[in-house]
Design goal:
Structural class: alpha+beta
Largest sheet: 10 strands, mixed
């Protein structure tokens, strides 16, 4: 498979002989049914040997398949707001940024006129660009966050989340020192009754797994490594609070202390991902921010 920012090119092999084009798009290129339905309506959406093709066309070994993956300009895009993004990695398919604290991912009625990641990306990539965040971070969480540049790449990355092809590690400062110093937390998480924000451990919640490891201790607080194996809302915050060690500064699951740190002390530190198009292994890190470094 070869590619450009606008299209994916694929040469059918013997394993594709006689298959329907739709099957090749789904199995070889990993395209979802909804994405296939969208691109097949475009004049140059799906080409077989350079000619527009229907998805029920037969494919033969050696055929050239070309698919347009660029998004159509969106009229529902958010307002662009210029912001000096800290870009850790970028190519024609995706961007990885080091998100600052006190920056939400999406606009909301509670954040009128405040720049979010979506607003900043609209200014950076173009105001009619559709925003495709792959891994979302809480407003107060700093660190690595991946944004796809098309629905196609977003879908490929989303499927890789919490697998060996898309692993994330966090760093956090917690109150107290966990015992044992390393372990796996396996506690189901559900939305707390009568709250649209807060989550809680509940028997009927979604299965959730987090690995933790104490890296250092200072003044009754521990600097810990966290690796989520599932992606529940507030998972790391809920799990550490559930074992008696909430994040420092966590106003929702612990105790707010703005003199200590003005946000929950959580940082998306490392991202290990196999590039969804090129296959290149990427391992990226973002340095611990000053407000957390001061605690450790």
């Amino acid at each position: 498979m070869s590619s450009g920012a606008q299209r994916i090119e694929y040469i059918a092999g013997v394993q594709d002989e006689g298959k329907k084009l739709k099957s090749v798009l789904r199995c070889a290129l990993g395209m979802s049914s909804s994405l296939i339905s969208r691109v097949k309506l475009l004049e140059d959406g799906i080409l077989l040997n350079g000619q527009r093709a229907f998805t029920n066309a037969a494919v033969h070994s050696g055929d050239a398949v070309s698919v347009r993956i660029a998004d159509e300009p969106s009229s529902a895009a958010v307002e662009p707001m210029a912001y000096p993004l800290d870009i850790v990695f970028e190519d024609e398919y995706l961007v990885v940024i080091n998100k600052p604290g006190d920056m939400a991912v999406h606009p909301s009625v509670f954040l009128k006129d405040k720049c979010t990641v979506a607003n900043a990306m609209a200014a950076y990539l173009g105001e009619k660009t559709t925003f495709h965040p792959v891994n979302r971070l809480d407003r107060g969480t700093t660190g690595l966050m991946t944004v796809a540049k098309s629905a196609y790449v977003h879908e490929l990355l989303r499927r890789r989340l919490h697998t060996g092809e898309f692993m994330r590690e966090y760093r956090a400062v917690v109150v107290g020192v966990p015992e044992p110093p390393a372990g796996m937390i396996e506690l189901p998480i559900a939305r707390e009754a009568d709250s649209v924000v807060k989550r809680t451990v509940a028997e009927d919640g979604d299965p959730s797994r987090t690995y933790y490891e104490v890296l250092s201790v200072k003044e009754g607080r521990a600097f810990v490594r966290l690796r989520p194996f599932t992606g529940r809302t507030h998972q790391l915050r809920v799990h550490m609070a559930a074992i008696g060690h909430p994040l420092a500064g966590d106003w929702l699951y612990g105790t707010e202390d703005r003199e200590l740190i003005a946000r929950p002390a959580l940082h998306s530190y490392m991202l290990s991902v196999r590039h969804p198009v090129t296959g290149e292994p990427l391992e990226l890190t973002a340095p611990i921010p000053p407000d957390m470094a001061a605690l450790i």
